[in-house]
From TrEMBL:
Alphabetized UniProt keyword annotations: DNA-binding, Transcription, Transcription regulation
Residue ranges the record marks as coiled coil: none
SUPFAM superfamilies associated with the record: Winged helix' DNA-binding domain
Annotated protein name in UniProt: Helix-turn-helix transcriptional regulator
PANTHER family reported in the protein's UniProt record: TRANSCRIPTIONAL REGULATOR, MARR FAMILY, TRANSCRIPTIONAL REGULATORY PROTEIN
Species whose genome carries this gene: Paenibacillus sepulcri
Length: 124
């Protein structure tokens, strides 16, 4: 496991595996959480950081950078003083909502009953 990105280096050896391809595209272990949060709409970095407070600042920065580089998240810079940066999902990122909804269904059925209902994917 690569500590910086949270990706599994063994996936590089498993050429052709669709799960490994998904993990390479999503990258960091916090990507699912960030994508779920951005499904609610565009957010500035500090707002996103508050909403996913479990994620440390550097990890959030790395995750966003990876998602931007892989075309799932759009980083828009506004020429204000200080500079304002807003993150939103691209069409590719929005399309991942289907997978998140299926994961949510799976957790509802098989997840820890003590945690049930604490998180759910927003449908739009």
């Amino acid at each position: 496991m690569d500590e910086q990105t949270g990706t599994n280096n063994n996936c590089k050896e498993s050429a052709g595996s669709s799960i490994c391809e998904v993990l390479q595209i999503l990258g960091a272990k916090w990507a699912f959480l960030v994508l779920e949060e951005l499904l609610k709409g565009p957010q500035r970095f500090n707002q996103l950081q508050r909403n996913v407070s479990i994620v440390k600042t550097q990890s959030l920065t790395d995750t966003l950078r990876h998602l931007v580089n892989n075309g799932l998240v759009l980083r828009k810079v506004f020429p204000t003083v200080p500079v304002t940066v807003e993150y939103s999902l691209t069409e590719k990122g929005k399309d991942f909502q289907t997978a998140l909804l299926e994961m949510d269904k799976w957790v509802q059925k098989w997840g820890n009953p003590a945690l049930a209902g604490q998180t759910s994917v927003q449908s739009s």
